[in-house]
Amino acid sequence: MLIAQSAGLAPALAVAPLTNYVMREKNIDLRDYYPKQLKDVVGDFDLTINMSGYNMPAHPSAKVEVWDVCDPIGESEDVFRHVRDEIEQHVRKLVERLRSRTTASPEAVAAAPQVDTRRRPTRQ
User: How does DSSP classify residue 65?
Assistant: First the structure.
């Protein structure tokens, strides 16, 4: 089972309007999401994807994988689309790589901690 969460080293107060716009083009609605800090990530995890360009604080159980992706803030709509598509390709490759590994037993899946995935209101 793959469960993704998102957080940042210095998150903004809200998701950028152009991010919302270009994600809706892919039928992904981020309207009810908000940027979170690393401390807001709940549960255990075994992989951290770092797209910040900065060193990550260490987490004892998580391997860190670095993706060299530019920050589109302040750039054109086309740059936002390019970054969106680049991240999508990274995610597809990651999912393929993870799924090619040995599948977890039903007991391991049942014993895995549940993650709170409920949407939270956007910060005002």
Answer: E
Residue 121 lies in a domain: no
Domain count of the chain?
1
Task: Indicate whether 43 belongs to any domain.
Answer: yes
Token couple for 24: 């809706």
Read off the pLDDT of residues 51-81 as tens digits, 9 standing for 90 and up: 998 888 777 678 899 999 999 999 999 999 9
Nearest to 42 by CA among 6, 69, 79: 6
> Does residue 36 contact residue 11 with C-beta atoms inside 8 Å?
yes
Q: What span, in angstroms and rounded, lies between the C-alpha atoms of 106 and 113? A: 13
Which of residues 43 and 115 earns the better pLDDT score?
A: 43
Token pair in block for residue 42? 């709940």
81-101 burial, b at 16+ Cβ within 10 Å, e below that, comes to: bbbbebeeebeeebeeeeeee
CATH number of the CATH domain containing 65: 3.40.50.2300
Q: Is residue 116 part of a domain?
A: no
